[in-house]
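Hey, can you fold this?
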Amino acid sequence: MSDPIKLGADDDLRRLLEQPVFAPRPRRPLIANAYRFRLCVALADALQLMVLGLIVRPAFPAAAATFSAGQTVQLGLLAAMLAVAARLAMRPPGQMGQEDTYATASRASLADFLAVMIVASLCWITLSQSITPSPQGRTAWFVAWAIGASCGAAGLRLAGARVAVRLQSGRNALIIGTADQARAIVAQLCAGPPAQWRVAGSFDDAAPGAIDAAVELVVRGTIDVVIVAVTGPNMSERVAKVANRLAGQPVRISLALDTPSLQCSHRLAFLDLADDPHAGFAGIAKRALDLLLSGSALLLLSPCMMLVALAIKLDSVGPVLFRQWRFGVGCHPIEVLKFRTMTAEARDITGERFTQARDPRVTRLGRILRRTSIDELPQLLNVLRGDMSLIGPRPHPLHMRVGSDYYFEAVARYRLRHRIRPGLTGWAQVNGSRGAVDTLEKAHRRVELDLYYIENWSLLLDLRILAMTAMGGFLSLDAD
């Protein structure tokens, strides 16, 4: 019996093998994502709170005589941190991103006012009156600062809410399922706050070509959540069909529960089947870590990489870099860079042929580069470009085979490893699964380790993998 994971799921990957091209994945503005937008507003609030103290300071000579510009900035930084803590303490539990705009503005305004006044109280307690003449003037400065910061915080939230609506910062929803169910969900989503949901499309999964059209929208990278709304005796098969087609896409997939039959609920209820590993603050932090470390590594290692490039030129005829099409996030082809380790005429661009023990195609220098993983260093450029991450499943060549089958056909759930950006190193590599995957057993183990990483991903796990790699996880002394 055929594996249900493969049914209708691999034809699109086979088409990529014939003529791989870069997929058009438009990048959204930084502030178009709700999480990122809220982060930008919070940072702007902290900045205005710090700067406002400097702006009003010259109007109060007593304050200017007591606090230098540098000390004022330090006080502002302390107030900004206290304001964040106050906003979190006052936020109703379970209401993130769902509060009324005016309630959010009021809470931010009160938090900034309290933060500045707490800083003022600390100054009154710690500073001696003998070195701070005219305490009334200093008090007036703190009050003016607190009122200004309070008004600025409220203004930022109210203006931010208007900008969010204009940018349609809500989640772009795609609905797949029974026509009646889909219409009911569209009506409820459209009846909600305009900045929370935006329906990008609705497809009846029973209609010919509907799922293909839905997948096409997801592949473009403009969908935040796919809502599956099906009912009937064959519900599980229909849900599985949609989920399998989207298995390799970095998108949240939610099952819409039949809320009319739930007497205790009068609103939409979803059960998440899969999430987007790149979404939210954690995804932003992971990308920031990639940019920081890969940029720093390129600067530090650039002399070494220049020497390697020169050595390759002296060792054999041909280009310094080797480019190969591999699977990236969402099963999209990416062009991965490596230092060339084989003779120019023997390069394997397809990746279909495994490197054998003492492979004659590998140059003398190339054998050293492969065993020390120095040949992978140009992939730091892939990380900066956004094709890869420092940590993640290793990108496999499009034509990579296990026995007589393509890798994505031989191993069930293989497409799931493409839900996250491929990495320079990963959980599989630091756990001994390196080098050629020439048997089905090795292939299954590699995929299991990759899926473990995706299901348990955290910044702490990334740092652990980086530490294990730095302690020798990049070495492969039997590589040829």
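Oh, and this one too while you're at it.
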Amino acid sequence: MEDSDRSGGSAPDTDEAPVPDADTAITQLYAVHYAGLVRLAALLLRDESVAEEVVQDAFVALHRRWRRLRDPAKALSYLRTSVVRGTRSVQRRKQVARRSPHELPPDAPSAEHSAMAGAAGNAVVEALRELPARQREALVLRYYGGLSESEIATAMKISNGAVKSHTSRGLAALRPVLEPWS
């Protein structure tokens, strides 16, 4: 009878439970332990929204590495370790940010450039004030408002040709005044 029991259709006796697939196992872990892991991270970070991100990152990392996990029974321990390490990483980044001086990006204009641009802008505004009203309106609508000729014509209630004429005359009048700034 021993031979028939061994060769029967039943599964062999093993001490190991079948290993669930990653999705099922992670879903179960998430349902049972997510809130506790967030509390752990929040106590370490004092910021619940960042704590939630750290815990979510830990679950994502576990899912990615599920097949390489030696003992799925230790998945919760892996998650706790990941959460603690994640909070440490966040704290290190915050410390570095606090210690680092706020530097301008490398392509930021210099103070001199900004001052010159401000002065040039003031010169443009002053030169525009000296133009006749229609020329000033056409130029402002075109270059500051970004309107097309037909949109300017509609706004000013004039023809497209008149817009071209006012714009051309206004630019011609501005050129000599603004030439030193170019």
